[in-house]
């Protein structure tokens, strides 16, 4: 039986460089071309095709890797209070995409959004579970079906991200905005949401 040969080290490094270049360029311009991405990686456009047959293939892998990182981060969020958990999920999502905010908006709203949605299934499952627990406990509104409310919570967190991609809003402000929007979506008043954040030290912004 012939052993499978490992890829050459330079080919592996080139692939990593292409993904890093794509992440950086797409965070500046969601329409960045393969030529631009390849140039940033120090490679020719032709060499890109040795790793990715199309630009979409490159983007799909980038989104998959990013979604896996985000999901891993969210799955580390644990709290007995489902409302605190939802707030922590919103904060964690922002923490994971802070440095690639434009790329993140492209991933969830661009032509590959269905691919992103599938890749982020673990995150959506965590949100829906927290909402269901909150409804059962009476701390989350019950006038909207759980699956629909989960989608609205997702949209609320995305709204904060979109605002952050339009302007260079301070990371600490987006952190708070994301939590406020999520808490408002699940039925909390603006005043109560602000008090809730200030009364839970785990929701305080912590710089990297």
Structure, explained:
With 208 residues, the protein is mostly helical. The protein folds into two domains: 8-53, Arc Repressor Mutant, subunit A (Orthogonal Bundle); 62-203, Tetracycline Repressor, domain 2 (Orthogonal Bundle), CATH 1.10.357.10. 70% of the residues lie in helices and 0% in strands. The chain has helices spanning 9-28, 34-40, 45-48, 55-74, 82-97, 101-109, 113-119, 121-137, 146-166, 171-185, 190-198. The mean pLDDT is 88.
What's the short version?
The protein is mainly alpha-helical and 208 residues long.
What is the count of helical runs?
11
Largest sheet: none
Q: What are the secondary-structure elements, in order, as H or E?
A: HHHHHHHHHHH
CATH architecture of the largest domain: Orthogonal Bundle
- What is the count of distinct domains? 2
Helical coverage, percent range: 55-70%
* Overall average pLDDT: 88
Uncertain residue segments: none
Rg, please?
19 Å
| CATH fold call of the largest domain | Tetracycline Repressor, domain 2
Distance between the termini: 49 Å
Shape designation:
elongated
What is the CATH domain class of the largest domain? Answer: Mainly Alpha
CATH superfamily of the largest domain: Tetracycline Repressor, domain 2
Number of strands: 0
Content of β-strand: under 5%
Structural class: mainly alpha
């Amino acid at each position: 039986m012939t052993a499978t040969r490992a890829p050459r080290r330079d080919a592996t490094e080139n692939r990593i460089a292409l993904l890093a270049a794509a992440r950086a360029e797409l965070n500046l311009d969601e329409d960045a071309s393969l030529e631009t991405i390849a140039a940033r990686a120090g490679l020719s456009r032709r060499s890109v095709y040795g790793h990715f047959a199309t630009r979409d293939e490159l983007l799909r892998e980038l989104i998959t890797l990013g979604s896996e990182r985000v999901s891993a981060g969210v799955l580390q969020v644990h709290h007995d209070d489902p409302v605190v958990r939802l707030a922590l999920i919103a904060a964690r999502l922002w923490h994971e995409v802070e440095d690639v905010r434009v790329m993140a908006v492209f991933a969830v709203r661009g032509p590959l959004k269905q691919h992103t949605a599938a890749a982020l299934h673990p995150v959506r499952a965590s949100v829906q579970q927290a909402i269901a627990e909150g409804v059962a406990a009476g701390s989350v509104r019950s006038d909207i079906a759980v699956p629909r409310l989960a989608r609205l919570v997702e949209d609320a967190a995305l709204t904060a991200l979109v605002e952050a991609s339009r302007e260079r809003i301070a990371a600490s402000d987006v952190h708070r905005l994301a939590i406020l929007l999520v808490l408002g979506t699940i039925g909390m008043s603006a005043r109560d949401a602000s008090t809730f954040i200030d009364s839970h030290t785990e929701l305080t912004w912590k710089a990297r």
